[in-house]
Amino acid sequence: MTPALELLGVHKRYGTAVALEDASLTVPDGRLVFLLGPSGCGKTTTLRIVSGFVQPDRGEVRIGGARVDGLPPERRGLGMVFQHYALFPHLTVAENVGFGLRMRRVPAAEARRRVARALALVRLGGLESRLPGALSGGQQQRVALARAIVIEPRLLLLDEPLSSLDARLRAEMRGEIRAIQRALGIATLFVTHDQEEALTMADEIAVMAGGRVVQVGPPADLYDRPATRFVAEFLGDSNLERGTVTGPAGDGRWRVDCGGLALTAAAPRTWTPGSRVAVAVRPERVRVRRPGDPGPESPANTCPGVIEEVIFRGALRRYRVRLPHGSLWSVDEPAAGDVPAPLGAGAAVTLGWRPEDCAAIPDE
Amino acid sequence: MSRRARLLLAAVNGAIYAFLLAPILVVVVVSFGDSAFLQFPPRRLSLRWYTDLGEYPDFVQSFWLSLGLAAATAAVAGVVGTLGAFALVRHRFPGRRLLGALVMAPVALPGLVTGIALLQFFSLLRTEPSIARLLAGHVAVTVPYVVRSVAAALAGVDRTLEDAARGLGASPWTATRLVTLPLVKPGLVAGAVFSFILSFDNVAVSLFLTTPRLVPLPIQIYNYVESSARPIIASISTLQVAIVVMLLAIAERVVGFSRRYVGGVEP
Amino acid sequence: MTGGRPRPPATGRGAPAAAASGGRVPRTGRWLAAPLAFWLAAWFLLPVALLLAESFRPVVIGQPTPPGLTLANYARFLGDPFYRGTLAATLVLGAAVTALALALGYPVAYGLARGRHRGRAVLRLCVVAPLLVSVVIRTYGWIVLLANNGAVNQALLALGLVDQPVKFLFTHTGVLIGLVHFALPVAILSLVGVIEAVDRSLEDAARGLGAGAWRAFWAVTFPLTLPGVAAGGMLIFSLTVAAFVTPALMGGPSLIVLSTLIYQQMTVTLEWGFGAAVATILLVVATGLFLAAQRGLASMRGTGAAA
Known about the structure:
The complex is a heterotrimer. Chain A folds into 2 domains: 5-232, P-loop containing nucleotide triphosphate hydrolases (Rossmann fold); 249-362, CATH 2.40.50.140. Chain A has 9 helices and 20 strands. Chain A has helices spanning 43-51, 93-97, 99-103, 108-121, 137-149, 167-184, 195-201, 219-224, 229-234; strands at 5-14, 17-27, 32-36, 58-63, 66-67, 78-81, 155-159, 188-192, 204-209, 212-217, 239-250, 253-258, 261-266, 276-281, 287-289, 301-313, 316-322, 328-334, 348-353, 358-362. Chain A has a 6-stranded mixed sheet, with helices on both faces. In chain A, helix 6 links the parallel strand 7 (155-159) and strand 8 (188-192). In chain A, helix 4 (108-121) crosses helix 5. The longest helix of chain A has 18 residues, at 167-184. Chain B is mainly alpha-helical. Chain B has one domain (55-255): MetI-like fold. Chain B has helices at 3-31, 48-51, 57-90, 96-103, 105-108, 111-125, 131-155, 160-167, 172-201, 206-209, 217-227, 231-255. The longest helix of chain B is centred in the first third of the chain and has 34 residues, at 57-90. Chain B is globular, with a radius of gyration of 23 Å. Chain C is an all-alpha fold. Chain C has a single domain, classed as MetI-like fold. Chain C contains 12 helices and no strands. In chain C, helix 4 crosses helix 7. Chains A and C meet through strand 1 and helix 1 of A and loops of C.
């Protein structure tokens, strides 16, 4: 099936500043794809190129398989939700939501029906004659969403739509947006800097940094197998060690020496001995072995350490452990009932983790 | 502040307010007087100075001339000023900075100087004296206020609103028409009303562009006052003031108290 | 269509620096600005420039446009004691009006700036109202009031303060009264802004430290408003020296100020070169002060005058 959106090799510079460099992205039909990255990574520029407000210097933009390069925004048939909603303050909720239908000359009666349906979908039925100024932030956001979906676009563009909401509302809206997107089956491109948002909602995440798309894949893939140090550090927490590949360990595994810490990492590629790598291990994948615990399985990585700090985080306990070669690692242990008594600062422990939980990344 | 000091302050303020309003109130009251000579306070009230206005065709002509001229000035200044404001606030073009600085220049110069300059200019061009000269001058000195008013309103309108409209299928012009212009309307109305009043009241520029056949009302009043301070002047003056007051009331009704939207555009 | 040209950040809210939503059709701006630019250039800039040029043209009786450039007009003005006297009289009158307008306007402005809200709108309207009425009408009102048999003289006689009617019209006093009335609304409005810019909590702090309300005002608020008062004063001065109607109607033919002199030169004696020179002098004085005042008032608003 033709993807709803394809960006192929898009370049954009402003004077000497490069906003986008060879950016490529695909949003398959019906899927929710996240464009994730820090401020200045080029995601806003990408959005404006897709919506047609900015022309790329090079590259193609296809919507539904057709090139839209010359098309102005009003002819691209997209649904857009802006960061600050951009609701028309002088029009009622119904007039706002129905604006796109009015532009398409939909007859009044049908427009009314569709507006009512869209408002019901975002659970704002009954607020048709209110003005945006009289609505709360969360309500405004829903109106913006209704306005975008009522025109049945082939692609929905969301520009950090939740960033203006408080934490609780944000969590609530995440679920709602996901549900609406699934119900309507609209291909959606969601732009954000919030990695938690991306991890919880996305079908697929495209991470951007410095104007380039750095890695694309389902959230679990990106989380477990980051392709670069940037992705490893941007998505969730990582213990990062830098080292050199010493040699293969068979079965797709590699031995790496990280300044005295010898470990075995899994990486679905070939390394030449001597290559510099970064190894990322997620805190929750490290097990704390107390004295007296049974030994780990043989391919496991182990390392002794001393706990320097214990941080209580509700569902987890995080230990800050000093390893012999100098690094300070974060190790998360569930604070559930069946876990043995917590350890305190100063306790000597052994850490263990599997090679599969050790992602080797080329070190730039 | 002690009670006595506060009372003193209030009294002083009251006196100054009275000072501010005195001449205007006097004119209005005198216009309802009965005597053929100037008398304040008037002994008896009558409307004769209003009904007699018909016998002063020069006043009547001047009144209509000024009214039409002011309306035309407001219309032209409104259009030219609004287009210019959009250009200055929302677009880039060579000379934008220069134009932005230049726009306020007519306000900085004494009206007298502008009037003289125009008189000289038109006689250099050897054109026939006409109402067009007056219009040109009036628009030139009032358009800065329109630009300022519209630009201020426009700067307060979120630019992404137009983007949102375009994303929903509106052409650039439709987006401007349906979204931006309504939000700018208070600024436009305020600017146009101000332009009307300034034109209607204008003396400094009109003084040099009048001819025996084209005499705006303030100049006509000036001529009459210069010769003698008769009560007929009071009635036409009161009518002048009444027009201005009515216009302001209408403008207030049209623009409203941001009733349409909370946190909208500053007028 | 490529978009290789860099776009500077847009004015107004909401537009990211990366791409302005205006100027997409890159030439729209110049077409929208054209009518305004043309109107100002043709009916303002050009005429004023020509006026300046005219001031350097010699005045030759019988020859309307003699050739050549000269400073003779300026020399004539500055060299003749009568004209110098007119300039001096204008400036002195301006200074007197400014001082009075500021003095009278300050208490009213303070009341508006610091007063409670009920009725404030009405009072503000009373201040603005005179500005909406044509200056000829206001001057006519003063003529009625200040005439020998006018209300003011009637009151003075009735109160026994004088034995005979005081002559106000055709005197400097009358013109002064008229001009103060003309300048007062402007004074009040600009002073309101200045006083509002001073942080209220400064006075509160002074009172908390033991100063009475009056003392707190003089020691804290008043000094902080002085730069703004100065700027407002420059504004009023620039408007007053250019005033025409009030001196013309209330001063009569014998009381000459710069503006009435110019009027005479341009319409009666028709010595245009000379009139243009005098007009230029007025322009320089008035506009120079106006611009200085604008800068002063703008920076006051910016700093807020609050420590």
